[in-house]
Amino acid sequence: MIIAKAVGVEVGIRMLVADASFALHSGDKVGLVGRNGAGKTTLLRTLAGLRDPSAGTVARSGVIGYLSQESALPELDHPDATALERVLAARDIGGIQIRMEQARRLMEAATGDERDRLIRRFARLEAEFETKGGYRAEAEARKFAASVGITDDEMAQPVRTMSGGQRRRVELSRILFAETDVLLLDEPTNHLDLDAKAWMMQYLGEYSGALLVVSHDLPLLDESITSVLALDDGALEPYRGNYSYFLAERDRRRQQRIRERRHQQARISRLEETARRFMGTTEKMSKRAKSMQTRADKMKEYLVEVAAEGKSVALRFPQPEPSGKIPLEGKGLAKAFDDNVVFVDVDVYAERGECLLIMGLNGAGKTTLLRILAGVESADIGEVIPGYKLAMGYYAQEHEQVTPGLTVFEHVKSVSHGELDQTLRSILGHFLLSDKIDQDAGTLSGGEKTKLALAMLVVGRHNLLVLDEPTNNLDPQAKEALLEALHTYAGTLVVVSHDTEFVEALQPDRAVLMPDGDAVYFDESLLDLVALA
Known about the structure:
This protein has helices spanning 40-47, 83-88, 93-109, 112-131, 134-147, 152-155, 164-177, 194-206, 218-224, 243-278, 283-300, 366-373, 408-415, 421-430, 446-460, 476-488, 500-506, 527-532; strands at 2-11, 14-24, 29-33, 55-60, 64-67, 182-186, 210-214, 227-232, 235-240, 328-337, 340-350, 355-359, 381-386, 392-395, 464-468, 492-496, 510-513, 518-521.
């Protein structure tokens, strides 16, 4: 259970949430909604106890599971911890297994009293292992992992060698395995394929604890929640019902507020008009006129608030200088992490002006291939050949181009080509970041980091864009703006995306199927594979 009383949340000098009071009890399934940058992620972190509220109190009871929308490498029990060990550590079973193995090895070399002591230690650890579920728990951990798209081979893989998407699925498995009383989930369907999303919706629908979820995945919000908390301009407003009901009810409440405000303003106008007519006439009427004006002024203090309509992202990529016919090519590329061979002998190229989609199941090496093409990572075998006048821009799904400690403005300034500061501020305004120009970019929400990374691509004037899951964390309006901008972009696109609607609207020219690297012309029959990616 979580109880928030008069909670305030600040980032820098910005008040994101003010005077918020609500409670999460067992069985509650709540969707936290709001535009990118409204403060949803920061509020979730505050509820999870990862940061202190600037005002008010948060009371917690039971086991709380928090899933961050970031895919950063987590703190591990040891550097080579596998995915299985990471998941089992949620109940400390992985740590017990490690200590059991250490005791067993020491027993083999020990003699006499030392051996007897180690035998007793091993027996105690084994009893604790059995009490916490033992080998049955390992099977349960593997079941959760398989449900969100992690294979048995990946469960044996060191977490540090995994892609961001793989790590995030491991963390999701870990949280679900932890036997929680409260789930705080920030974009839980990012990096999940179609089957995993379907399983996730069913699991959350049957979850008996308290759930608070932030998601731009509208089907998830519709099928898994029973109420909504809407965060807008620092205020939380509760709604009963699912997301579809919330949208209709929000519009109904807004129209009602508009009618009430018009009625109030009409009454104020009548009072002020009457006061003006009688002011300066007889002494008696002048007193009545002053009284009317006082009533009108008092009514102005209690006017119904009507929130302004949300602004939309305005995104347009400048027309770049043309590149050569083949702006980018990879020949005989191969990559492995320790014993995990990701792909071998992959040939890939992009033609000027085309949209190339990199496809494949989870773990097929899509992100790794993009990092190699972008020059962020090196291939173990093969080479990447840049074409004539290539100017490449890379969008990383992990927001690697966003550096904590630097302001939002410093980020766009660092990639500009001599544009005036006023021009750069205008571009940030188009991305709805004008009020965050001097804010540490590391404190932005996931959606705001995505917008900043896209703004940096706009400023960079590239003729080839390498985009890895560019719609993750974007609200529907921003995603639509991105699509429109890419449709008018005259350069070359190399894209990885699991967003079926986005890919269908993008209409790629060709696709490369990983891990084999087979190139095919794109058609609608491949959309089913996009959904499984």
